[in-house]
């Protein structure tokens, strides 16, 4: 490794102007990135990690920020150091994309929806490298092959909306790598992706780094990803750097209290071995925490039999059904009172549709759903409305599921008003009780959703789901968008409520470590079918279906001495769930490999 760092941030201070005066986003932060090294910057939302990277690109100015102090030294290719904090924007245009590449968090907003993938990939090459159109297109094809995109010739002519999330993220990586930058900044590049795609993209970035010698600045809040990628780690908290060191040292011997609590809040795969029932996580700084296991009962609450949901694909002049999307295909399971069944799988495997079909938010094609003796499928609209008292849903994105124009007190009270359960002072007492229950101060009742953080909004969504005292809650990726420490608090809250109120959860997630922590039973879904179903310990410690095994292999483990290599990952591309109207799938057939542990024997396409 060369001694001279590619980028040095020295005593950086960034301020944002607001109505109430300047707010400091980053205060006195210093670190450097050497050639061929990956430096991970970790911290929760609002800790200033993205602001530091946007300052280095001088993009922070477009978001209302100003660099109020410090130096941003960048070593350009000619070997001259420049301070990016005070160069002209013209020079920044030459550096951006050419010498510093950036991968943004949200691939859909990083790509332009009106231009083809090919046009966006060749733009940088033609601007910075002066390539002709044919040369740039040939290089773009090469890049798509490097990031392992299937059928690259076809992809160049497609638009971003025609690609899946993982593919879009690969295109963004290819764009960032196009001009072989000296420094690559990756801002949470895998948060919105599935475990399997995340594993492939991390392995891909690691390989590209080794082949090109690029330095990488990797921003994330996922400690397992840090263990997989980092050489050095910088921990940030409220705009300040609180700790820095080699990755093994940070994981094995953290010095700062914040780093310790961050590591304690990460659910680790394998932590629940030998435990019969789920139990809350031990959180640092929380007094008298009840960590007793939650066994639940053996009484069945929900029975789902042969549930099938398909979506018609219309086409042609008369808008006839030309094909069907087989979203959920012959799914059966039961959930006991006070227990949690988790459905896991990748995006598009049908787990959210299965959850919505049970509540009849999506009308299933066929099947039986029985909730505590009530046949949900046979109900008319009025009966269904009554049945929804017993089953509620927590959606993935709490901001989208809350009304931006209503105060929180009204949003939590609304279900009780709708069903005439309470009014007047009794209503306000119950709402205040729900706020206490989800550990939110009562002073928040007059606030609006935009005045809350993501974790607080998710708590409001939980309070609203609890308002009607339901028996079953379908939690659709309820913690996937949250920071680790907030995620740990929300999970503990959900488990505490389960122990207190005897709630049953259908927990939909793609995070295997979280699923291992909260579940009594686990169902693994692939292409609309459950391929493996059984008690948590059986599925996690003895996975029998090849897809479950591949899924377990892909999960990054929060241990820097136990890294995955690209050869560990052998995913087959997922076949299409769309079939012609004449197609009749086989029914699902299962083998019972141990008591209560079932594995699909029908060909699932994997």
Automatic annotation (TrEMBL):
<dbReference type="GO" id="GO:0005524">
    <property type="term" value="F:ATP binding"/>
</dbReference>
<dbReference type="InterPro" id="IPR003439">
    <property type="entry name" value="ABC_transporter-like_ATP-bd"/>
</dbReference>
<dbReference type="GO" id="GO:0015833">
    <property type="term" value="P:peptide transport"/>
</dbReference>
<dbReference type="InterPro" id="IPR013563">
    <property type="entry name" value="Oligopep_ABC_C"/>
</dbReference>
<keyword id="KW-0997">Cell inner membrane</keyword>
<dbReference type="Pfam" id="PF00005">
    <property type="entry name" value="ABC_tran"/>
</dbReference>
<dbReference type="InterPro" id="IPR003593">
    <property type="entry name" value="AAA+_ATPase"/>
</dbReference>
<dbReference type="InterPro" id="IPR050388">
    <property type="entry name" value="ABC_Ni/Peptide_Import"/>
</dbReference>
<keyword id="KW-0813">Transport</keyword>
<keyword id="KW-1003">Cell membrane</keyword>
<keyword id="KW-0067">ATP-binding</keyword>
<dbReference type="InterPro" id="IPR027417">
    <property type="entry name" value="P-loop_NTPase"/>
</dbReference>
<feature type="domain" description="ABC transporter">
    <location>
        <begin position="9"/>
        <end position="263"/>
    </location>
</feature>
<dbReference type="GO" id="GO:0005886">
    <property type="term" value="C:plasma membrane"/>
</dbReference>
<keyword id="KW-0547">Nucleotide-binding</keyword>
<feature type="domain" description="ABC transporter">
    <location>
        <begin position="302"/>
        <end position="552"/>
    </location>
</feature>
<feature type="region of interest" description="Disordered">
    <location>
        <begin position="564"/>
        <end position="591"/>
    </location>
</feature>
<keyword id="KW-0472">Membrane</keyword>
<protein>
    <submittedName>
        <fullName>Glutathione ABC transporter ATP-binding protein GsiA</fullName>
    </submittedName>
</protein>
<keyword id="KW-1278">Translocase</keyword>
<dbReference type="Pfam" id="PF08352">
    <property type="entry name" value="oligo_HPY"/>
</dbReference>
<dbReference type="InterPro" id="IPR017871">
    <property type="entry name" value="ABC_transporter-like_CS"/>
</dbReference>
<dbReference type="GO" id="GO:0055085">
    <property type="term" value="P:transmembrane transport"/>
</dbReference>
<comment type="similarity">
    <text>Belongs to the ABC transporter superfamily.</text>
</comment>
<dbReference type="GO" id="GO:0016887">
    <property type="term" value="F:ATP hydrolysis activity"/>
</dbReference>
